[in-house]
Amino acid sequence: MQSIRLAVALLALGAALPAVAGKPTLLLTPVGYAPEAGIPDKIKSECKIDELFETRVGEALRKNGGGTTTTVDAPAGTQVMRVQVTYVLGVGGGGWTGPKNVSLQADLLEGGKVRRSSKFSRSTTGGVFGGFMGTCSMIQRCVTTLAKDLQEWSAADIDVPQAAPASQPVAAE
After folding, report:
1. Could you tell me which residues are beta bridge partners of residue 113?
2. Which of 21-30, 35-44, 121-130, 163-172 has the lowest mean pLDDT?
3. What is the 3-state secondary structure (H, E, C) of the chain?
4. Which pLDDT tens digit goes with each residue over 88-146?
5. Between 68 and which of 18, 58, 111, 117 could a Cys-Cys bridge form, CB atoms 3.0 to 4.6 Å apart?
């Protein structure tokens, strides 16, 4: 019985620790919208998605020792995340008008140069009480989940292999 309690305590402790620990990451602010995003002005002004991202992602990155910045130049050993909202499906009417979706492009920069880049997307129907949630509340749910995704992605510290120069043949595997 005591070994079961110990196992449960260790599991709880492991769940309380950050999932991954990589380089501290600073979020480049302000978070912007991609030029081709085509997000309705009403959704931008009412839901304030850019401000939501700054708040939620900034909070998530602080858990890994990061925060926010207004410049791509960062201290050594720190990376900067640039986020652009690329798509929002957010028809007014809350859960009664269907699912809501938020998509983004994220770049991790070091020394002002892109080190990694990825696209993320989350959608929600609001769950059991989706019919009683507003559009902005549903979008906020997507942004909160995306903030956690970005926190884990930035801390994973995975380097993308560099392509071989064009003058050298690629080795066959």
Report:
1. 110
2. 163-172
3. CHHHHHHHHHHHHHHHCCCCCCCCEEEECCCEECCCCCCCHHHHHHHCHHHHHHHHHHHHHHCCCCEEECCCCCCCCCEEEEEEEEEEECCCCHHHHCCEEEEEEEEEEECCEEEEEEEEEEEECCHHHHHHCCHHHHHHHHHHHHHHHHHHHHHCCCCCCCCCCCCCCCCCC
4. 987 777 667 778 899 999 999 988 889 999 999 999 987 766 667 888 999 999 999 99
5. 58
